[in-house]
Amino acid sequence: MPDVRLSSPQGKWILLTTVLGSSMALLDSTVVNVALPRIGRDLDADLAALQWTVNAYMVTLAGLILLGGALGDRFGRRRIFVIGVLWFAAASLLCGLAPNAGVLIAARALQGIGGALLTPGSLALIQASFHPDDRGRAVGLWSGFGGVGAAVGPFLGGWLVDGAGWRWVFLLNVPLALLCAPIALRHVPESSDERAHARFDVLGAVLGAAALALLTYALIEARGASWAVAVSAVAGAAAAVAFVAVERRRTDPMMPLDVFASRQFTAVNLVTLCVYAAFGGFFFLAALQLQVVVGWSALAAGTALLPTTVLMLLLSARSGELSERLGPRLQLTVGPLLCAAGMLLMLRVGPGASYLTDVLPALVVLGLGMVTLVAPLTASVLAALDTARAGLASGINNAAARAAGLVAVAALPLLTGMGEEAYRSAAAFDDAFGPAMLICAGVLVAGSVIAFTTVRRPAPDCRRPECRTHGSVLAPPLEAEGRVRQA
Questions:
Q1: Residue 250 phi, psi (nearest 5)
Q2: By CB atoms within 10 Å of each CB, which of 15, 201, 338, 419 scores lowest?
Q3: How many CB atoms lie within 10 A of CB 315?
Q4: CATH class of 1-187
Q5: Which GO terms of the molecular function aspect are on file (predicted)?
Q6: Under 8 Å CB-to-CB from 259, ≥6 apart: which residues?
Q7: How far is Cα 233 from Cα 65, in angstroms, rounded to an integer?
Q8: Contact 24/177 with Cβ under 8 angstroms?
Q9: Virtual CA dihedral for 86, 87, 90, 93, nearest 10 degrees?
Q10: Is the separation of the CB atoms in 354 and 263 below 8 Å?
């Protein structure tokens, strides 16, 4: 049984290690959007390249995050976590030194692989290391500090872009990794899962990532209507079909399809796809709108987006408590509607917009909607399957959220008629931003309807989320498995 106490020196080192590791991924998910206009100008990149700068990372992260968790269970969570941290840092260095958009996009894909290795291990290390009496407090501190990192991300990103330059958005990860990895090797005990003995579903992971990449390419490049787009779309669909076939036939699949026999699990993941598609599209476009159209600096744009994350950090735990008393259905119905209202309020954000009267009200309403829905969403996912599969349920839900976000980033410019150079023209970008917000609001309303018609109150003895305080706006928090052994 894990026996490290939080008050001990080792306990504090473990907490610091996991906070540093998770902060690298959280910071990266929030700061890059703010840097996109400057990246585009410096590298002479078109809108498609900016979409790929976001999506190359999300493709590999979403496609491989379940495999990353399985690798930690088998070969040791500390070992895979450290590999992920160092891999992430090396890829970040390559991002920071990229001479052109192509190298940056390739480095971002490599960065996503590192994120898939370190992200599942951060919370798992806490669960595997701390004494059961201290685990809840350790998770609370970890998620709280991680939320602070997510909240600081847009501000820090804007400050770096306007000061040292956008490359430091990525280079900042290198010293964090050089601090994190040695502490982990010295102070974090190794752990693994005694049940993890099956073969890895590498084929499933490759097919899943390939399907996402090919379909994303087809959506981003569809403006050209070329044969490459058509072939990519067909190949992506074929890879998706092959992924389902492989997962159905394997005895040890990465994503067992029988989990979707649970109507509640399927329904909550459909809600997840809707809300996180809207969130992914919103945060990609809003950072550009505030800089390209409103004319703010990167620092001003990043700071402007802080309210959503701060509200989640302050109120997510209370939202979870409310969900336990009332059941998740009400919040999963009302939350997306509040988010939709926030995005409709963003229609007022155009040239000469005021932060206090135009931007802030929209972000506060959006943030309150996110607070309302994210905690019960996680709780419903965990409650839909038996306790032994809680980690799997959370991993699938997290991957679904990230996949939804990357599809939105790929599809929204196409659906709204954004040209390749739209982000260089305030008028062109503003013309497309309004329809994009309407689409996002519509998708959120669809998520609300799904929740109202399908989500039911979970059993009283179901698994409850351990991570109650969080600030991530692009994916729900991960939950770890419960059974571990010391290596």
A1: -70, 145
A2: 419
A3: 18
A4: mainly alpha
A5: transmembrane transporter activity
A6: 265, 385, 389, 392, 393, 396
A7: 24
A8: yes
A9: -100
A10: no
Fold of domain 256-457: Growth Hormone; Chain: A; (1.20.1250)
> How is the chain split into domains, by residue range?
1-187, 202-253, 256-457
485 three-class SS: strand
Please spell the DSSP secondary structure of 80-98, one letter per residue.
HHHHHHHHHHHHHHHHHH-
Q: Which two tokens stand for residue 146?
A: 């991680």
Q: Of 163, 145, 213, 216, nearest to 407 (Cα)?
A: 216
Spell out the per-residue pLDDT of the chain, length 487, in tens.
Answer: 567 888 899 989 999 999 888 888 877 777 899 999 999 999 999 999 999 999 999 999 998 998 888 888 888 889 999 999 999 999 999 999 999 999 999 999 999 999 999 988 888 888 888 888 888 788 878 877 877 777 787 888 889 999 989 999 999 999 999 999 999 999 999 987 766 556 778 899 999 999 999 999 999 998 777 888 999 999 999 999 999 999 998 888 889 999 999 999 999 999 999 999 999 999 999 999 999 999 999 999 999 998 998 898 888 888 888 888 888 999 999 999 999 999 999 999 999 999 999 999 999 999 999 999 988 898 888 888 877 777 788 889 999 999 999 999 999 999 999 988 899 999 999 999 999 999 999 999 999 999 999 988 776 666 677 777 777 788 888 776 654 444 5
Q: Which two tokens stand for residue 141?
A: 């501190």
Distances in whole angstroms, Cα of residue 210 to Cα of each of 62, 250, 356, 452, 487? 11, 19, 44, 34, 34
Look-up of token digits 């996110």? 370
Q: Where are the alpha helices (DSSP H) in 250-389?
A: 263-288, 298-304, 306-326, 328-345, 360-384
